[in-house]
């Protein structure tokens, strides 16, 4: 869910406002990355900070690390995004985890997982094409399924027998695809399920906490200022 990055971005935004400053969303993102990675020394990525700062659907390209250059390209709003929102279900697995610990095991295997990581990059364009096109939206669910199968190969700590059981239970009840959010090991699991099949999936996963949600497109913002 990107909670640590969302907290860092939100705290930074509040501190900037207290100092009578109005930072850009890119400034918030880059400063949050600096705090988490350089000052705290967490083994975390950079995508959550950017997503928390900007909000909405974006293609995020990381151009360079030194100096840090990031390109954020918004994906135009279309009725397909509303349809996609109606097809997504979020469940809490019941297992919290420390993202940095999970990410560390994957970073250690970057070289041997290079082919998988390249495939993930290819999926970005495929996902955008599905959302911007007129074909079957279920193809997005199939893309999630492929991504999950590949993600499980990044490290033996990404999934567990119980998480695999949750995933297969949802699939057997009608989900097209899904994946754990974040580094893996626990946390929240997202599924693509056609609306008419969602009651069956909720019933099958009745032991898990179902979390309704809606897309947000404003990013970090100060909602109250006295």
Topology:
Layout: H1 3-18, H2 25-39, H3 47-54, E1 58-64, E2 69-74, H4 79-86, E3 88-92, H5 99-107, H6 114-132, H7 138-151, H8 161-173, E4 177-180, E5 188-192, H9 198-204, E6 209-210
Antiparallel strand pairs: 1-2, 3-5, 3-6, 4-5
Helix pairs in contact: 1-2, 1-3, 2-3, 6-7, 8-9
Short account of what is shown:
The protein has helices at residues 3-18, 25-39, 47-54, 79-86, 99-107, 114-132, 138-151, 161-173, 198-204; strands at 58-64, 69-74, 88-92, 177-180, 188-192, 209-210.
Quickly list its features.
226 residues, alpha+beta, Ribosomal Protein S5, domain 2, Alpha-Beta Plaits, 4-stranded antiparallel beta sheet, two-stranded antiparallel ribbon, 6 strands, globular
Q: How many whole angstroms does the radius of gyration measure?
A: 18 Å
Mean pLDDT across the residues is: 91
Number of helices: 9
CATH architecture term of the largest domain: 2-Layer Sandwich
Count all strands and give the number. 6
Could you say which overall geometry the principal axes of the C-alpha atoms support?
A: globular
Q: Considering DSSP H and I runs of 4 or more, what fraction of the residues is helical?
A: 40-55%
Run of helices and strands: HHHEEHEHHHHEEHE
From the N-terminal CA to the C-terminal CA, the straight-line distance is 30 Å
> Unreliable segments (pLDDT under 50, ≥5 consecutive)?
none
Number of structural domains: 2
